[in-house]
Amino acid sequence: MTSYADFYRRSIDEPDAFWAEQAKLIDWQRPFTRVCNYDNPPFVHWFEGGKTNLCHNAVDRHLKDRPDQAALIYVSTETGLEKTYSFAELHREVQRMAASLQALGVQKGDRVLIYMPMVAEAAFAMLACARLGAIHCVVFGGFASGSLASRIDDATPKVVVSADAGSRGGKIVPYKQLLDEAIRLSSHKPQAVLLTDRALAPMTMVAGRDHLWSALRAAHIDAQVPCEWLDSTDISYTIYTSGTTGKPKGVQRDTGGYAVALAASMTHIFDGRAGETYFSTSDIGWVVGHSYIIYGPLIAGMATLMYEGLPTQGLDKQADGGIWWRLVEKYKVTAMFSAPTAVRVLKKQDPALLKKYDLSSLRALFLAGEPLDEPTARWISEGLNVPIIDNYWQTETGWPLLTVANGVEQTPSKFGSPGIPMYGYRVKLLHESTGEELTQPNEKGVVVLEGPTPPGFMQTVWKDDARFVNTYWKTVPGKMVYSTFDWGIRDEDGYYFILGRTDDVINVAGHRLGTREIEESISGHAGVAEVAVVGVADSLKGQVAMAFVVPKDGSVLGDSAAALKLESEIMKRVDGDLGALARPSRVRFVSLLPKTRSGKLLRRAIQAVCEGREAGDLTTLDDPAALQQIRDRVQAG
Ligand code: AMP
Prior knowledge:
By secondary structure, this protein is α/β, with parallel strands linked by helices.
């Protein structure tokens, strides 16, 4: 057996040979002629000349050996629906969806925006797009009309696929209404909307534009739609993510490189084997949902469990803190993927629930999306008695960048560390201001990657190569390196520890949000003169947003009823623009904000004060009274 060190070294020293070998894990309709084209850094083209298709690799190629094996297991504790689709059934549903999209005019290269709750039709839609060579753009269902409208304008989709509603803890989220409002706000108007009716909320159909999936499905019940063979470098999808500016970036991914990266990660990192069951508790609106609910497990010939609902409610809609473990037992889940926040929620449940079920099928629990704190890691590790594998990555990378590759060699994990660099990633730590590489253990620096980035990594920012280069690759003077915008240290054994973001991105329950987006929404309120939003540590969600607002009408400061009213209006506004996820936990009113003499907001000082820490270097602070006011407000509770 190869050691991981040798495996890693080969991926860096002989990338062409290494990745050509990994590329054998998927089917190619036409072999590639060049493994890695890095002629124009930082852009990388993987497997040029090759033709393949993600849907073929996820579905069709399994029809020969495992047509009747479970492919998609759908469980909703919100509606009580539990249904398994074999690979043959999934193949049929995907073709019906592909034919329906074609009937609505979708062709190769067209964008299809998917705004859906966790329903099987969302998986059919993603796979159908991949089948046709259409570019899917899944927008997280927790986002509200304002966020959705800006994504519609950026992606300019020909068709939107949606549903009447989602449900969370029994609360109905009216997707169709939110979508109608978003289309009203957007400049680009999609030519058709395809809707799944779950009978959860009324839908007002727009004549000529809106179509029911049930009708189109019936019309295409026997449809046979072949896979469109795509160039390896053709775009498979875009997914939006937040950064320093208020405008989300469309992270763009290729086809062949992504398929190879996922297939390789299923073998080397997730140790996923064909015929077994994979359960990721994420949502299709996030990158984890793309890589490890839909494509990764299916490419590996595994059944994937798609779950709608809270981790604490059963199929009978009664409280059940053991529902996930019940599903692990029932479907013999071998690999499970979740987020630390979900485990912190479960930690509040009866610990006996972990012992109530036969969890012997489970080989590992993978956790990602936010820092994994030691008490949470220990609790779940002792409860499950399987390795807990922290893994660090980003929407941009598409698959883990730091973790352990137990499929290559059993490697111990360290509490608090996601692990070591994965094959293909040239990870470095750079000094914040000088850009010098930090080579000594335990020095804090910015985590960066040297090119070429591995297969599966983002190709560029959708329609904006300049933004891709300027945002990610030009943060260190004189060096072209990709910045993760995370602080990190590396210990003497080569294990990395992630110490938080270097930019204004916050992480709420594993979900990434830009404080600037929240600030822009709040500034839109007529009563707001100025605003600062910071992320503050929270024992359950990791971080929550907190807003400090300078009201236009100073009398709000001394009038608690007026302050409460304004706070509630501001929260409603954020709910409507961005969604409840982005809603600040508190809005506090102040007469001025702490800024530098040049007018730059001192967000980090505000954050430190909110968390009861020292505010750090304040030499640039213009007016100390501003920070004192924040301190007073926070202490007042
Ligand atoms: P996203 O693109 O939404 O997946 O967010 C990526 C960001 O989440 C990273 O840049 C980190 O700040 C954080 N993150 C993801 N996984 C981890 C992890 N395992 N440990 C610490 N932070 C993480």
